[in-house]
Amino acid sequence: MNKKIKLTLATIGGGLIFGAASATTTFNLVHGSPANHVITKEFVMPWMTCVQKIAGDKVAFKYFPSGQLATLKELLPALQKGVADVAPVPVGYYSDKLPLNGVSMLPGLGSTAVAIVTAYSKTLSNPALAKEFSDNGVVPISVMAFPPYQIVSVSKEIKTPAQFKGKVIRSAGGAMDLVIKSLGGSPATISVGDTYVALQRGTADATISALASVSGYKLQELAKAISTNGSFGTFVNVMSVRQAKWNEMDDSLKKIFQDCGQSVQSQAANSLDNAGGLLAQKFAADGVQMFAFTPAQLQEMSTKLDLVHVDWVKRLNSRGLPATAVLDAYKGNF
CA 164 to CA 205: how far, in whole Å? Predict the structure, then answer.
């Protein structure tokens, strides 16, 4: 074998195997995003490549992308059932299983992906957040967060709570529902993969999304207006390893997984932040009206969005969960 790590690829059951034939440990790496989506290009593939490069023959990956084995909403159960060994868990789709971790999606906290990723990765050491992952039988090793979400409308600009009123807006659930309701809209829980069709058919009037996801799912083809300076929360994916598989790994391999996780989460956050301006220019060139909220409009919405934090804390505290302490810890890491 030369100094460059050789990759052998074989199609088995619809998946690809990445690794050397003598690999001692094989991992099913499963995710639900399409090949051209930023989660695939900036998070999943770079992490797998990093691990493979450093670990060499110690690992092989059976790679199942694009929902081949599990859709976005099935990734956590796939880990729990042993279908997947590694998967990026989309926190927003599991507000029932990871309620406190939904703090990472609240609006008005962090103006960049770098700031959000840095704060949330630090807060993951909080016992309450860590326990939610361990209770679900998974180990978090890396975080990906989008820059603050923007409003994407298929009709016209939506700039004020009065204009949000009566609009059906696609939501991933959890904190995003609270954001939409606080501004007067009606949230419709629709998976990101079905958003294009929902907007096309008029099932939803708009969506709240990162510009990178707009591009990844080609929503700019339908959009008439997209904001550029909103702060409507974000969406977080946590690369996670099945606990039983993690327990089988030696300490050196665990360290490789974690070190690659730290490296990739930083690279992905910087890439997403840098891409935002370029995507806005591209969408504008394609005929989408890119608009900025005025300071007065931002202030009006900020007053409404502050209530999301209050509502989130109240709901989870009422369930006996330490939401106040978690929110304070998260804010303290910015």
Answer: 10
Residue 104's pLDDT is 97
pLDDT at site 24 = 79
**Closest to 279 measured CA to CA, from 200, 226, 222:** 226
Q: Which residues pair with 138 in a beta bridge?
A: 242
Integer Cα distance of 54 and 93 in angstroms: 32
Q: How far apart are CA 25 and CA 22, in angstroms?
A: 9
When pLDDT is cut at 50, 70 and 90, the band that residue 5 belongs to is very low
C-beta separation of 203 from 181 below 8 A: no
Beta bridge partners of 295: none
Per-residue pLDDT, averaged over 317-324, amounts to 98
Measure the CA–CA gap between 155 and 200, rounded to whole angstroms: 11
Which DSSP helix (H) or strand (E) runs through 213?
helix 211-216
Amino acid making up residue 226: I
**pTM assigned to the model:** 0.89
Give the CA angle between residues 82, 86, 87 to the nearest 5°. Answer: 105
